[in-house]
Design goal:
Elements (H helix, E strand, L loop, with lengths): L3 E9 L2 H12 L2 E5 L3 E5 L7 E6 L10 E5 L4 H14 L2 E2 L11 E4 L5 E4 L13 E6 L3 H11 L3 E5 L2 E5 L6 E4 L13 E6 L6 H11 L2 E2 L10 E4 L5 E4 L4
Parallel strand pairs: 1-4, 5-8, 9-12, 13-16
Antiparallel strand pairs: 1-13, 2-3, 3-4, 5-9, 6-7, 7-8, 10-11, 11-12, 14-15, 15-16
Protein name: VOC family protein
InterPro entries: Glyas_Bleomycin-R_OHBP_Dase, Glyoxalase_6, VOC_core
């Protein structure tokens, strides 16, 4: 049995506001969970929740991970963009070319995301969150495939992608060159041991796959912080 992806965490200067933004964009339920704090619960087969954690640090560099949101038509793409803008998003330039059909936006705290044009074959059978698109090496794609037990659905030219056997978004890594990393990522994963599993045994397994133990100042009792082979922080939470 392998760990499961429990949550995607956003560090946020204003967690309630950012949670309301993403609840509006994704149409997910916003809850205040006793264990997870401010969180969004998926309304589809995404398979993980989104948590919003308070931080005093301002965003200063491009995130290593972002959402690719899918569209069923050009009108649908334009409506998603319009909804996001009404909720507080803004257009940004991350080097995209004019001929590319996707729209690049940033949420109210500057976290990048893309609204993909209709007809994208790679995301054709995915839901509204088509992918978590990550900056990362082939090695880290292999690591997360083994960590979560998700098969590789793409492995070519050092680009990798995995997807849960139960569906939901793909997680993709674009290969080299990697963006420089000077501070803790604002987006990170929380993984949980299998039901009734042993947290320490899961930590040991992940370390054997190439993770390392780190200290990110986590103050939640029982949460173990690790970094994957590319240095991306993540936490192993107690069994759920």
């Amino acid at each position: 049995m392998t760990a499961h992806l429990h949550a995607l965490c956003f560090d946020a200067n204003d967690p309630p506001r950012l949670a309301r933004f993403w609840a509006g964009v994704l149409d997910w339920e916003l809850v205040d969970d006793p264990r997870d704090g401010i969180a969004l619960l998926p309304s589809d087969d995404t398979g993980f929740r989104i948590r919003f954690l308070p931080t005093q640090e301002e965003k200063t560099e491009q995130n290593r991970m972002h959402f690719d949101l899918t569209s069923t038509s050009l009108d649908n793409q334009q409506q998603t963009v319009a909804t996001a803008l009404e909720l507080g998003a803004r257009h940004i330039d991350v080097g995209q070319r004019p001929e590319e059909g996707h729209v690049v936006l940033a949420d109210p705290e500057g976290n990048e995301f893309c609204v993909i044009e209709p007809g994208n074959n790679f995301l054709a059978d995915c839901g509204f969150i088509g992918a978590l698109a990550c900056d990362g090496s082939q090695e880290v794609g292999y690591f997360w495939s083994k960590a979560l037990g998700w098969p590789l659905v793409w492995d070519q030219d050092q680009e990798t992608a995995i997807r849960s056997p139960h569906g939901g978004p793909k997680i993709t890594w674009g290969g080299p060159p990697l963006m420089p990393k000077s501070r803790k990522n604002r987006l990170r994963f929380d993984v949980a041991p299998p039901a009734e599993g042993d947290q320490q045994a899961e930590v040991d397994r992940l370390v054997s796959l190439g993770a390392i133990l780190i200290d990110i100042g986590q103050d939640e009792a029982g949460w173990v912080a690790l970094a994957d082979p590319d240095g991306n922080e993540f936490c192993v939470v107690p069994p759920r």
